[in-house]
Amino acid sequence: MNQTIPVLEFDCPLCGESITLPRQSPLGVYGGVACEPSGRWPLKFLCTARGLFCEVPSAAIRRGTTPMWSIDQHAGSFWEIECPCSQKNCGRHHAIYTKFSGNATEREVVVAAVRASNAISLMMACSAHHLVVRQDRICARRLKV
Question: Residue ranges of the domains in the chain?
Answer without folding.
Answer: 4-143
